[in-house]
Amino acid sequence: MAETAHDVMHTRPHAGSMSTAFMELDLPSEVSRLHEESAWDTGQNARTLIKYDTLRVVLVALRPGKTLAENRTEGRISIQLLSGHVEIKAGGRTFNLRPGGLLALDRNLPHDVRALQESAVLLTVAWPDDEK
User: Fold this and answer.
1) Average pLDDT of 104-122?
2) Span 30-52, mean pLDDT?
3) What is the pLDDT of residue 25?
4) Per-domain residue ranges for the chain?
5) Cβ atoms of residues 125 and 55 within 8 Å
6) In this predicted structure, what is the pLDDT of residue 128?
7) How far apart are CA 9 and CA 121, in angstroms?
8) With contact defined as beta carbons under 8 Å apart, do 50 and 30 qualify?
9) d(C-alpha 116, C-alpha 65), whole Å
10) Nearby residues of 81 by Cβ (< 8 Å), 6 or more positions away
11) Residue 52 — φ and ψ, nearest 5°?
C-alpha cells in the first residue's frame, strides 16, 4: 500500500504518542518547524502529524517549483492548502489550490502536486478498516 507523501518525502512522526484519544496541533508552528529543519534546504520537507491505523495526516512544505511526483494510494485523500499556491494534476484535470482550498480524491487516482509559490499543504489519507 502506498502512503503518498509519506514515502516520497521521508517524513518523521510528530514527537510524542500518536495513538492518543485526541491531538491538538498548531499548524503555523508546525510549518515554521519544517522551515527550520535542515531538510528544508532541499526545498521540501514533511512531517506526519497524525498516524492511526486507518488515517494519516501529513504536513508538507514546498518551495516554488518543487513537485511531489505522481502517486496513488489505496485510501481516499484530501489535500488542503494552508499557504501558497499549488497545482494538482489528477484524473486528467488540473486543479489550482490557493489558501483555504481543499481537494478530495478517490482511491487509486494518480495525482501529483507542484508548488507554484512557497506552500504548505495538509495531506490526509483515509483507508477503509478492511484495507489497513
Assistant:
1) 96
2) 95
3) 93
4) 5-13+25-131
5) yes
6) 83
7) 13
8) no
9) 6
10) 97, 98, 99, 100, 101, 102, 119, 120, 121, 122
11) -120, 170
C-alpha cell at 28: 503555523
Q: In terms of CATH architecture, what is 5-13+25-131?
A: Sandwich (2.60)
* Residue located via cell numbers 502529524: 49
DSSP string, 103-122: EEE-TT--EEEEESSSEEEE
> pTM of the entire structure?
0.83
Question: What are 59's three cell numbers?
Answer: 504536513
Q: In terms of Cα–Cα distance, which of 102, 66, 100 is closest to 83?
A: 100
Please tell me whether residue 36 adopts helix, strand or coil conformation.
helix
Q: Do β-strands 12-13 and 86-90 pair in parallel, antiparallel, or remain unpaired?
A: unpaired
pLDDT score for 9: 39
Which residues, other chains included, contact 61 with Cβ-Cβ below 8 Å and sequence gap of 6+?
Answer: 31, 34, 35, 40, 44, 45, 46, 118, 119, 120, 121
pLDDT for 18 equals 56
Element (H, E) at 88: strand 86-90
The Cα–Cα gap between 69 and 80 comes to: 17
pLDDT of residue 21: 78
